[in-house]
Amino acid sequence: MNGRGEPAVESDGQRLRRATELLGKKWHPVLIRTLLAEGALGFNELKRHIDGISDKVLSEALEELQDAGLVVRDVVEDKPVRVNYSLTPAGEALEPVIEGLVTWSREHLSETD
Amino acid sequence: MNGRGEPAVESDGQRLRRATELLGKKWHPVLIRTLLAEGALGFNELKRHIDGISDKVLSEALEELQDAGLVVRDVVEDKPVRVNYSLTPAGEALEPVIEGLVTWSREHLSETD
DNA sequence: CAGTATCCAAATAGATACTG
DNA sequence: CAGTATCTATTTGGATACTG
Q: Of the candidates A91, B31, B64, B66, which lies 20 to 30 Å from B91 by C-alpha distance?
C-alpha cells in the first residue's frame, strides 16, 4: 500500500527530530527532571523549584508537556483549588535518557563556551 | 572557597540545558546521526544526505557543531578543494544518547500530533 | 492558589542570489 | 566543490499587569 515513495511509518529521523524538538524547549528538561525528583507538585510549588520562570511561560510549557503526553494535570477540588502536575509513564521513561544527557554533557561538553 | 551561594561547578541542570539546547537545534541531531552512520563526508555529500537543508543553514550548523567540539573540519588540498566533516570522540559518544532518544520516541511519542 | 492577556525582543530558520 | 551575503518569516521566550 501507499503507491509513491512515502514511508508507511515514521522514520527514525523524524522520531529523533520530534524528541529533540520537545526536549530542546528551554524549560522542558528541567521541568521533567524536577517532577522526576519530587513527584507531583502544584503550580506555584513547581514555579518555586524552577527559578526564573514566569507564570506565562510555565503555564505554556506545562500545556505542551501535557499535549505530548508526558505530564498529567490533576485538579483537586478544594478551596482554594489545587492543581497537581506529575509525570505519565512516558515522562518517567525519559529518566535514563536525561541522565545520559547529563553524563554526556559532563564528560564531553567544555565548561567554557 | 567562594563566599556567596554561587555553585563552584556547573550544576547538572545547567549541563542538561546546554546539552538539550545543542541537540534541540533543528538539524544537529540528524547531522550527527548521519556522520555516525557514514563517517567523514564532504559538504555537498552531507547536504545530499540531509534533504531540505540549504547551504547557509548547513554551513551554520556545521560551525556550531565545530564550536561545541563535536565535529572536525578537515581541508584536503586538492583541486577543487575538498572539505571533510567527521565526528570527534565527543560527537561519537552521543551515539547511545541519540539511540535512546529514538527508542524513547518510538515507544512513547504518539505519531498523531 | 492557579492561572490569562498584552505587548515586545531575541533567536532560529529559510529563500534566493552570488563567489573563489 | 564549498561556501558567503541579504533579506524575511516564524518561533520562542520574557516583562508586566490582571482575574477567579
A: A91
pLDDT in tens, A45-67: 999 999 999 999 999 999 999 99
Phi, psi of B25 (to 5 degrees): -60, 135
Classify burial at A72, counting beta carbons within 10 Å of its beta carbon; exposed 0-12, middle 13-18, buried 19 or more. middle
pLDDT per position as a tens digit, B28-66: 999 999 999 999 999 999 999 999 999 999 999 999 999
Residue A42 grid cell? 502544584
CA B69/CA B67 separation, integer angstroms: 5
- Cell match 567562594: residue? B2
CB of B57 nearer than 7 A to strand D? no
Which residue in the block uniquely carries the three cell numbers 543553514?
B57
Instruction: List CB contacts of B90: < 8 A, sequence separation 6 or more.
Output: A108, A109, B69, B70
SS3 helix, strand, coil % of chain A, rounded to 5? Answer: 55, 10, 30
What's at A8, amino acid-wise? A
A21 touches chain B (CB under 8 A): yes
Contact at CB, B17 and A24, closer than 8 angstroms: no
Residue B5, pLDDT above cutoff 80: no
